[in-house]
Structure formats: structure tokens, C-alpha cells
Write a structure and sequence with these properties.
Strand 1 and strand 2 form a beta hairpin. The radius of gyration is 25 Å and the shape is globular. The protein has eleven helices and eleven strands. Strands 3, 4, 5, 6, 7, 8, 9, 10 and 11 form a nine-stranded mixed sheet that branches. The chain is an alpha/beta fold.
Length: 299
């Protein structure tokens, strides 16, 4: 008998481990629950170990099963990625874009209108996952996100889309006294953000209402501050009068122009350590449509 487990067994095992259920695994794989159970028993027999503990209302992995699942799920994912890449190449006019969600919503969406009018046959698929600047997507043709500018000077294939200034923004509906009582809004993921901004202004007096905000922040140790995971929600909170966000030139310009937010103090701008970059992936370099969009979006 071959010592190689059939791929169908491995897929049944991986899905069953992920869902802790033969029934849900069967539903995902479009086979019967009995077929999944039979394949798991055959796999356990071939491996000479028990992979699952069977309970009245579900499953749990044994220690051996857990170790086997950690390796198996990675292999299944790699296989699925290969298939996805192959299918993506077949769809020569469909561009998969992995993009920072704030950039996508506040900048990219408006720029794509003219591109679509000129290229009606090109379609696009967006992914807005958690942005990890040093981790490239396996499936995207085009990637747009922020990176530390000082680390990218010699990086090949990157196009700098924006080099921003940072400045406080808040609701235009609030009085000076109401502004002074607001907490700060932090965006996790950026390079220390508010702390960076203050460090760049060493020696520059922050006067007026923003000086009061920082003084209050120091006194209450930031206990009332907001922490969010993207700039889009930070600016929306600021617009609603719930706090003061650190605006980025490229992202907040349209909101300033439409008076949805206002600059709290025009004299306290500081350069952002990150910039938004665009990169054409190896997959994108094989697709004419992606190359066309890349050159269209270049500044």
C-alpha cells in the first residue's frame, strides 16, 4: 500500500480540524458527512495514530492531530494559492488589487472612475486585509500601502504615491473650548504617530487650543483616547466631534475641501515618516492590464 495519503483525505482532515466538525467540513467540500468520517478513519489508520477526539457535540484535535494540522493547513493553502494564481493569469483583464483600506476609500476610488471609462473591459478585485508592509501578497497584481520612507530608498519596483504632512484635524462645528476638551485619536500601525509628530516639533511652541489639548492629554495620561486600526474611521470620528485625529495630506485633503473636518492649527505641520507606495507584483508584471493601471496611477 502507498504511504502517500490521498489529497482528498488531507482536505477532509484540514477542514474538519478547522471547523471541529465533520458535518461542516462535508458541507464545505460538497461531500457527505459519512465520506468525511470514512476518510479521516483511513488517514488515522495509515498514520497509526488518533487525530481527533470524538465528543457528543463536536471534535477536538489530539496533540498529534494538532501538530499534523499545522503542517497540513499550510500545504493546502500553498496548493490553493497555486491554483488561484493560475486562474488569475487566465483572466487577463481582471486586476487583483491589495490596498490599504483608507487609501482605497479616500483616494483610489475617485481616481478609478476615469480609468474605467477609458478601459471598460478591465475589471478589478480589491482586498483590504491587515496591512503588513514587508509581507507581499501571493495573489495580487498591484499593491498599495504605506511604508517607512527612509527604508525604501534602494527598494526596486516601488513607486512613491504620496509624501505627507501630518497635522491635527477635528470637526468644524466645535468651539475652541469644546476642541480643548477632546481626546486624541490614534491609528495603530503607523510609526508612533502622535509621538512622532510631537518629536518633530521640539523647539516649536504649540500654542492655542492644540496646546491645551496636549496639556490635558498629558494630565490624564491619554486615558480617554481612541485607538482605531485605520485612518478612515479616525477621520470619521473626528468629523463627528469625538476627538482630534492626525491628518495626512493625501488622505484628508478632500474632507478639508468639503469642510467635513478642519485643521486645528495650521502652524504645526510635520513630515510623516511613512509614504504610500505602489508596487507591481511578479504576477502583475505578467499582465498587461495591471501594467496599464500601474502607469496610470503613477504621479
Amino acid at each position: 500500500m502507498s504511504k502517500q495519503a490521498p489529497l482528498t483525505w488531507l482536505r477532509s482532515f484540514e477542514a474538519s480540524a478547522r471547523y471541529s466538525s465533520f458535518t461542516r467540513a462535508a458541507s464545505e467540500l460538497n461531500i457527505t458527512q459519512a465520506a468525511v468520517s470514512k476518510q479521516i478513519k483511513a488517514l488515522e489508520s495509515q498514520l497509526h495514530c488518533q487525530l481527533f477526539k470524538r465528543h457528543a457535540h463536536g471534535l477536538s484535535l489530539t496533540e498529534q492531530g494538532r501538530r499534523y494540522w499545522l503542517d497540513t493547513r499550510e500545504l493546502i493553502q500553498q496548493l490553493d494559492n497555486v491554483t488561484h494564481q493560475f486562474l488569475t493569469r487566465q483572466q487577463s483583464n481582471k486586476i487583483h488589487i491589495r490596498c490599504n483600506i483608507s487609501y482605497s476609500s479616500l483616494i483610489l476610488a475617485s481616481r478609478l472612475r476615469a480609468f474605467k471609462q477609458d478601459n471598460p473591459d478591465i475589471t478589478m478585485e480589491f482586498t483590504h486585509d491587515v496591512w503588513e508592509p514587508e509581507k507581499s501578497s501571493q495573489n495580487a497584481h498591484l499593491e498599495i500601502g504605506y511604508r517607512l520612507i527612509e527604508k525604501q530608498s534602494e527598494h526596486q519596483g516601488l513607486c512613491l504615491l504620496s509624501q505627507d504632512q501630518l497635522f491635527p484635524v477635528a470637526s468644524p462645528e466645535l468651539s475652541e473650548a469644546e476642541l480643548a476638551a477632546l481626546p486624541l485619536i490614534h491609528v495603530s500601525g503607523y510609526y508612533h504617530e502622535w509621538r512622532w509628530w510631537q518629536e518633530q516639533l521640539v523647539g516649536v511652541p504649540v500654542l492655542g487650543v492644540m496646546g491645551e489639548v496636549l496639556q490635558n492629554h498629558q494630565q490624564n495620561k491619554g486615558q480617554q483616547d481612541w485607538v482605531v486600526d485605520n485612518s478612515l474611521i479616525a477621520y470619521q470620528l473626528a468629523e463627528q466631534g469625538l476627538g482630534i485625529a492626525l491628518g495626512r495630506t493625501s488622505l484628508v485633503s478632500n474632507m478639508l475641501a468639503s469642510n467635513r473636518v478642519r485643521c486645528v492649527s495650521a502652524q504645526v505641520n510635520a513630515p510623516a515618516p511613512e509614504g504610500f507606495y505602489m508596487m507591481l507584483s511578479d504576477l502583475g508584471k505578467q499582465q498587461i492590464a495591471a501594467q496599464h493601471l500601474f502607469h496610470y496611477l503613477m504621479p
